[in-house]
Structures are given as structure tokens and as C-alpha cells.
Sequence to fold (315 residues):
Amino acid sequence: MRHHESLPPTPRRPLRLAAPAALLCLGLGLAGCGDGGGTAQAQAGPSGGPAATPAAPVPPSAAPTKAAPSPSKAPAKSPAKSPSRPPAAPDGPLSGKTVVIDPGHNPRNHLHTAAINRQVDIGTGRKECDTTGTSTNGGYAEAEFTLDVAHRLRDLLRAQGATVLLTYDRDREFGPCVDERARIGNEAHADAVVSVHADGSAVGNRGFHVILPASVRGGDADTSEIVAPSRDLGTRIAGLFVRSTGSSPSNYVGGKTGLDVRKDLGGLNLSTVPKVFIECGNMRDPKDAALLTSPGWRQKAAQGIADGISSYLKG
Fold:
């Protein structure tokens, strides 16, 4: 199985930023530690948007025959498409703030292998346009998980008054490429960008981790202005993800701090606005997979990420 962009290519020395207990304490402190209250329960279920009006039936004799889609044989460029401006959000504590949510991968990437294998410049080198992502042993795809959490997260943030854009929402056949994902956040002048993922590691490797951008300068990449604010954003998300989900920081990446720094991800390297990735758990571990496939847990995951973003944007 192809490893996706967010999976570390080689083991790295653990980044020791904070002990798990300290990370949890940070999350509790940011959310009002000791106030006796829990995270407010959000409305269950993602918002799918208005249903399309059914088309008039076509007589059987006039119905065109459609061949099943097959993988691309020649590289095709993913259509450059910026997300449409969403409807005005209600007034709230995040009014005037713009958040971009980047659901990792695309459920149809596997049908366009030549296109997603096209190399793009990520500043520190060249990498695939996108990858297929991973899945649970039961076949629940990472790309479906990321869209579901992204929809839940979008609804929570919009309820607080934020303007929220998704890098894609089933509106394209494949991708977007990692460089375009970064460009969407940049062009929106986003106050925060979060790329949602789930990992594909070995059985027994459990927990979440938040990936922070390293200091990178090369080609079109220059993260010097976003390293510090991205660390603040990521640390807040990690602490409040613990509080909302009860999940522990990764036991295999980041020295159990829940944080990791990487310079091989184009989505981070090419960003000019604060951005982090979150790997919500390991889809290949049965215990983590049971969480990731639960709608109730996905709502808690979205709540934890939303709480972290909100804490960061409020200062």
C-alpha cells in the first residue's frame, strides 16, 4: 500500500516538547481548567448542504450508456479550482476570521494514478501531486474519514461566526495537488489552516499527533513567518484534542508529546499562513480504527480541533 504524504518516510529523533500530562494540562487550562464543565456537545452529524433538485426522468431509449471510470493512463492536470465563497456566517466570537480546512486525499484518487503521481515542487524537493491515503482493515478510507471530520469541523466553526473554506468537497475527480492545497489557504489569507488526516502505521502504534512546519527556505517555500504561529496553533489543537476525545498522544511519533516537526510536506512548506496537519489516529490499528469509524468519536475529534482553532484565533 502506498504511503501518503503525511506518513514519515524514515524514523526521526523524537521531538520532546512536552510530557503527555503537561499537554493535557495545557488543553485543560486553555479550555478553562477547573471550571467543572465539559466540552459542549455539538449537533450530531455533518452538514451535507442543500440537496440537489432531481432531474426529470430520461426515457430508457434516450438514456446514454456510461462506461465505468478507469484509471488515467496519461498525466492530467487537476483543474485549478478555488473554493467558492461560503454563505455569510452568523455573528459570533470568530466573526471576521477565515479558516481553511484541508481534507486529506480524495476518494477518487485511485482512479487517476498517473495524474496524482505527477511530481510537484515542494521547496525542499519534488513529490507526488497527491496520494490515495490509507484505510482501515475493514475498508473505511482515510479520504472518507477526512471529509466527514472536515464537514463537522466546518459546522462548528461557522456556528462561532468564522468564514470557513474547504480545499475541496467532492467537487473534483482527483487531488487537489499538495501545492494547490497550500495555495488555496494562501490566497484566502486564512487566519488558520488545518489539514485533516489519519495515519497508516503498524498495529500497536496508537494515538494522534499534530505535524508542525519546520523552518524551510528553498524554491517557492519560505516558512520563516509561520513557524512560530503554527506551533502555537498546533499546541492548542493537541491539548484540546486530548480533552475532547480522551485519546492519547501518539506512542510512535513525537516522543509522546503529540507534536512532530517535518520539512517534507508540501502542504506545510508552501504555506504562507499558519498551518498544521493532524493525524487523528492510526487506521491500521484495530483499537484506533474502532474510534475512527465511530460517528460519535468523529464528532468529538471535530470538536477538539475546533476548540484548538478557536483558542488560537481568540489569542
Q: What stands out?
A: Residues 273 and 297 are 29 Å apart (CA to CA). The beta strands are 98-103, 119-121, 126-128, 163-166, 192-199, 209-213, 217-218, 221-222, 259-262, 275-282. The two ends are 41 Å apart (CA to CA). The chain has a mean pLDDT of 82.
